[in-house]
Design a protein that fits this description.
The structure is a homodimer of 309-residue chains. By secondary structure, chain A is of the alpha/beta class. Chain A has nine helices and 18 strands. Chain A has a seven-stranded mixed sheet. Chain A has a seven-stranded mixed sheet with strand order 7-8-9-14-15-16-17, with helices on one face. Chain A has a two-stranded antiparallel sheet with strand order 10-13. The radius of gyration of chain A is 21 Å and the shape is globular. Chains A and B meet through helix 1, helix 2 and helix 3 of A and helix 1, helix 3 and helix 4 of B.
């Protein structure tokens, strides 16, 4: 399986349909597994998708409307049942922290979990490791809501031909990567720049329920994959605004303004048929020239290859 | 559709499987609609089964293990979304009332519901109407748990031939039913017994997580339909006892001791395949000679016809 992919667990807003479960998105990112917005039924959708509770290293909740969080108790209790003992960070808007408390203790179970609660009261870094930084920013919805952005640090890609030309191989490569320079047996100093090129870190953004706002664009800046709600078609722009949601066209504008690479549209109102949703891609494409995916339940969306330079 | 039937929404204990959602059972009983033990995903299972939130008149929770209650927030929030304004009685074991409180307020929504909360601290009548009495009794599980029994009052069935022989028709039949006797134009008194026969009320019982106990048999007494957990096969009787559950054979014994008519087995451990479950019917049949149904998701089980006498 790809080491970096988004597994779509559910794509319905507000009310599930025959074809669409409530929200749920699992981001596999090397050894990390981030679950975004587990709506009701996420536990079973994970089963259908082959995602296990033990693969979760973090859970990110954007806000506490039911379609974004009612699957949390089932996921947590399944983690306990499966004896997941590694720490799992759970982040959510601090203003609605009481809801997290209720969801965590929604039913009787043996709570052996090592949850690290990370209530977010403003723009904040959720977790930072050598592998990536996960950060959150407040969005503009009817209730406190945040979006998320994962950023891999920039690095360098070693060039096999250049290494061979200098006779650098084996453990010397690791030394070079550690110290950024190596002295050859003949006394020549080879800086890492001479045998490698910059490797841009990959970025992932998750923008759920929100009106258009600057923070959504900031989160999505240069993202290889932007998952963005598009509850409504452009014709319902007034409705979208009054309920604090985006249209497909507005999601396309955000992706374009941010210079994102792939836009995955999701969180569709139950009013739309599959035929209607095909037009969502057109509405987004009016603004955004990158790849557009209409997310369907159990889709697997690979993180696009790194950009060069 | 039949006026009295059980719509099976889910049949899995503890962990859902590809074929079985967590528990959930909708009893359609004339104008009443009782939802028993809504596990996670019940909202969507209702959609698949064609059951709407507006059909619910009562919700009965046996206990607060997640597989019996985590669908409650979704159902309640769906009722609010669908603008259900009629009173809905929600009953549950009083000792675990804090969990109901959390589930009711598990996410942000406009709570316009007219819920009548009915915490049960001992054997009690939940609701009583001219149409039926719904009562609960404590069972023997690892946590506070109750079972439910619905009883229709006994009545009388009018006999068309006897009515015709006495020349009784039209509005006179209603008068006879109201006063139990009618005076004919020729002065003859006709008691209702002469033109009718006893009509036994129907009974339904819902026995979930429990060890064998007297209360389970009392709840199931003479039931036309007994829905009974059988988490384990008889070979796992020790496991069943230690976790406070029944085996298929024990469910059969309860049905037999109670003189029930149809036994619907459900709440199966994820360890069993469809092939294993076929043997559950045999194990119950070693004790119980009535009809046995292995419940599957989205099954519709009609309430058997009335017994005579």
């Amino acid at each position: 399986m790809p080491s970096r992919e988004l597994v779509v667990l559910g794509t319905a807003s507000q009310a599930p349909t025959r074809a669409r479960n409530h929200n749920g998105y699992f981001l596999r990112w090397d050894a990390a597994g981030l679950l975004f917005d587990p709506g009701e039924g996420t536990q079973r959708q994970m089963l259908f998708a082959g995602v296990t509770a033990s693969q979760l290293t973090g859970i990110c909740v954007t806000h506490f409307h039911g379609d974004h969080c009612l699957g949390l108790p089932g996921v947590l209790q399944r983690m306990a049942l499966d004896q997941v003992t590694h720490p799992v960070t759970v982040s959510y808007p601090a203003e609605s922290g009481e809801y997290f408390g209720r969801l965590r203790r929604a039913a009787l179970f043996h709570d052996s979990l090592a949850l690290v609660e990370r209530p977010l009261s403003a723009a904040a870094v959720v977790t930072e490791t050598p592998a990536f930084r996960l950060e959150a920013r407040p969005l503009s919805h009817r209730v406190p809501a945040v979006g998320y952005r994962l950023t891999e640090p920039d690095g360098r890609r070693m060039l096999p031909a250049a290494l061979a030309a200098h006779g650098i191989s084996g453990p010397d490569i690791a030394l070079l990567q550690q110290f950024n320079v190596i002295t050859l047996p003949n006394g020549t100093l080879v800086p890492i720049d001479a045998v490698s090129e910059p490797r841009r870190g990959q970025k992932f953004a998750f923008v759920m329920d929100t009106r258009r706002c600057e923070a959504a664009v900031d989160l999505a800046r240069d993202a290889e994959l932007l998952v963005c709600e598009s509850t409504f078609a452009d014709a319902e722009a007034d409705l979208a605004d009054s309920y604090g949601h985006l249209t497909a066209g507005q999601a396309g504008q955000i992706a374009a303004d941010a210079g994102a690479r792939t836009l995955a549209l999701t969180h569709f109102s139950q009013r739309y048929t599959a035929g209607d949703l095909a037009k969502f891609a057109d509405e987004a494409a009016a603004w955004f020239t990158g790849d557009i995916v209409i997310a369907n339940d159990l889709d697997r969306i690979p993180i696009p290859p790194r950009r060069q330079g």
